[in-house]
Amino acid sequence: MNNSGEIWVIGEQRSGRLEEVSLELLSKGAVLSQRMGVTLASVLLGDEVDEAARELVFHGAEKVYLLEDARLRYYQSEAYARLLAGVIKEHEPQIVLIGATEIGKELAPKVAAKLRTGLTAHCIDLYVGEVDAAPQLIHVVPGWGGNLVMHIICPQRRPQMVAVKPGVLPRAVRDKNKVGKVIKVKPDVRDEDFRRIDTVEVVEEPPQGKSLESADVVVCGGWGMNAMGDFSRVQELADILGGVAAGTRPAMDKGWVDEAQLIGQSGKTVSPGLFIGLGVSGAMHYTAGFMGSKVVLAVDRNPQAPIFQMADIGIVGDLREVLPCLIEELEKDRTPRRF
Amino acid sequence: MGLEILVCIKQVPHPDHFSEIRLDAGSGRIIREGIPAIINPLDRNALEEGLRVKERFSGRVTVISMGPPQAQKALEEALVMGGDRGVLLCDMAFGGADTLATANTLFYAIRKLGKFDLIYCGNETVDSGTAQVGPQLAELLDIPQVSGVWEVAFGDEKTLEVKRALEHGYMKVRLKLPALLCVTRDINKPRLPSVQSIMEVAQKEMIIWKAKDIGAPPESIGLEGSPTCAAGVYEHKAGRRREIMQGSIEEKVHRAVARLKELGAI
Fold first, then answer.
1. What is the 3-state secondary structure (H, E, C) of chain A?
2. How far away is chain B from the Cα of A62, in angstroms, using its nearest Cα?
3. What's the pLDDT at A3?
4. What ipTM was assigned to the predicted interfaces of this complex?
5. Going edge to edge, which strands form the sheet with B169-176?
6. A109/B139 CB distance under 8 A
7. For the segment B103-136, what is each residue's pLDDT rounded down to a tens digit?
8. What percent of chain A has pLDDT over 90?
C-alpha cells in the first residue's frame, strides 16, 4: 500500500448505459481513495459513450480514461482484454475494481492473467487494514459453515484486482456539479483482435415481471423446504407481501426456482427492506446474497442454525406448521375492511 | 484425424453438506474430512459437451483434474461417463493455489499433453465459484475463450458460433478453434453411465503427474505461484437484532408479525 498509483473502477456500459455495479464500485472506490490519499479514476471502453463517461464523473471518478472506437461498441473478448491490460500497464493503478457481471466475470480473469496478477472474486467488503504489521487492502469474501468470512490479500503483485457482484455495495451518490477529467485515449484496435473471436450479435431480453433485485420483499426458500415437499406456499407468502419468491442453491437443484431467482454466491445479491429466509440454514455462501437487507426474518427448525445469527427476528419451528400460520396471520391484515 | 478434446473437472464438496464445512483458521483452506465429494455439477455438462463433439466429429476426450489423491475417483467417474483417458495432477506442491496458480498448473500439464482443439470447463464450481480458472487458462494458452455458454453450433470443424448468457438476454460469439468454452447447465443434460462403459473403464489410461513431471516452475504453482493468499478467517459481525420469538407456534408467528410492523418492514 502506498500513495502512488490510482484506484481504478472499470466502467461497464451496454448500449451506452452504465451498469449499476460500476456506480456501486465508485462508492467503495471513493472511501478507499480518501483513506489512501490517491486518485479515484475510471476506465471506459465503448463507442460514443462520452455521456456515460460524464456519469462516472458525477458519481465520483476524478478521472475517466475513455477508449472509444466503433468496433468497441459491444464487449469484444480479445480487444477489450488486450486494451484494458495495456492501459493498466501504462498507467499502473495499484487497485482495480471490477463488477462481476456476466461480462465482467469473463473479462476480469483474462486481464488478471495477462498481467499475471491477483484477482479476488465475490468480494463483499474492502478496507485498508494491517496484516503482520504491514498495511494491506483486505478483501473480505464469504467463508464457510455459518457466519464466517475470509480475508484475502494480494501482498506483492500490482495492480491488485477485485471483483464485486452487483448489489453488494451501495451506489455512489450522483452529483452533477462534480468535476473530473475525461481523458481520451486513442485505442489501438487491430483486425487480429477479431480474427479468432468476434461478438456478432447482442440480444437484450428485458426481464418479465418483477425483478428480484428491485423487490421490497424477498421470500427465500432453502434446503429446509424439503420438509414441505413443495414450494407453492413460498410463492403464496411472497404474493401476500407484494414481494418476489427466491431460493438458495438447494431450492434450484430441486427445480423449485430457476437461475433468475437464485440467491447467493452463484446467484444474485439482494438488499430488500424485508428478507424472509425459510429453511435457509445460513451457510455463508448463501447468506452473502442478502446481507444488505434491512430486516431479516428467519424460520428454521434447528435452533442452532447459523441463520439465526444473521436474522433480526427468528422463529424456531417446523416450516410445515410455521408457514401456514404465517400466511394466515398476514392474510388477516390484507382482508379488505367492510363498511 | 478427429478432434482432440480436453475437459477440466474439479472434485468439490457435496452442496448438501455446505453448512457442515469448516475452514482451517490459518490457511483458510477447506477441511475436507468427512464431507462427501462429487464432480462439480457444471463440469459434468462440460464433459457431456466434449463427449457429444467427439461422437459427431470423432476424436479423443481427455479429462484432467488437479486435486488430492481422492480426486482420482472423480476422474474415474468421468471415464465411466465416456472419457477416454484421465490425468490427475496431484502434488503437495500444487496446494494452496489461487486461480492463477491453478491455471498455471493446468497450462504446464496441457503443454506436456500436446495440442487440443477444444477445451471445456464448467462455468464455475459450487464451492469457490470464482469462474476464473477457465478464462485464465485460455489466456495462458493464448486461445479464444467464452464464458456462460449455453448453446454451441458448429459451422465446420474449425468454426463455432456460441450463445453466451447475459443478465437479460444473450450474446452470439463466433470463434475459431482451438478454443476454450466454459459451459452452463442449460447447454445439455449429462448422460448416465452405461453398463458397457463401466466395464471398459479398467482398460482406460489414468495418468498421474507431479509438479516435476509437467516441468512447472515452483514459483508459478501452488502457494508460491499465487498472487493472492488468505489472511485469516473471521466471524462476520452481522449487526442483527437476533430476537428469537417465544411461545407456541401461533404466538411466535403473531409476535414476529407484530415486530415486523414495529420495524416498518411490512
1. CCCCCCEEEEECEECCEECHHHHHHHHHHHHHHHHHCCCEEEEEEECCCHHHHHHHHHCCCCEEEEEECHHHCCCCHHHHHHHHHHHHHHHCCCEEEEECCCCHHHHHHHHHHHCCCCEECCCCEEEEEEECCEEEEEEEEECCCCCEEEEEECCCCCCEEEEECCCCCCCCCCCCCCCCEEEEECCCCCHHHHCCEEEEEEEECCCCCCCCCCCCEEEEECHHHHHCCCCHHHHHHHHHCCCEEEECHHHHHCCCCCHHHEECCCCECCCCCEEEEECCCCCHHHHCCCCCCCEEEEEECCCCCHHHHHCCEEEECCHHHHHHHHHHHHHHHHCCCCC
2. 28
3. 59
4. 0.94
5. A197-204, B169-176, B159-166, B145-156, B179-183, B118-122, B3-8, B59-66, B85-89, B205-209
6. yes
7. 999 999 999 999 999 999 999 998 888 999 999 9
8. 80
Q: Provide the pLDDT confidence category of residue A336 given band limits of 50, 70 and 90.
A: low
What's the pLDDT at A332? 86
Q: What is the mean pLDDT of residues A290-309?
A: 93
Q: What is the DSSP letter of B39?
A: E
Give the chain A residue nearest B262 (alpha carbons): A295
Averaged pLDDT score across all residues of chain A: 93
Contact in structure between A161 and A120 (CB atoms under 8 Å) = yes
Mean pLDDT for the stretch of residues A99-111: 98
Burial of A232 (0-12, 13-18, 19+ CB in 10 A): exposed
Q: Which domains does chain B carry?
A: 3-220 (3.40.50.620), 241-266 (no CATH)
Q: Which pLDDT does position A4 carry in this prediction?
A: 77
Beta-bridge mates of residue A198: B174
Q: Which of B23, B219, B236 to mutate to test the interface with A (most CBs of A within 10 A)?
A: B236
Q: Is the pLDDT of residue A338 over 70?
A: no
The domains of chain A, with CATH numbers, are 7-194 (3.40.50.620), 217-334 (3.40.50.1220)
Q: Do B131 and A285 lie within an 8 Å CB cutoff?
A: no
* pLDDT at A273 (0 to 100): 96
Confidence of residue A240 (pLDDT cuts 50, 70, 90): very high
Residue A279 in grid coordinates: 429453511
Chain B residues within an 8 Å CB radius of A117: 100, 227
Q: pTM of the prediction?
A: 0.93
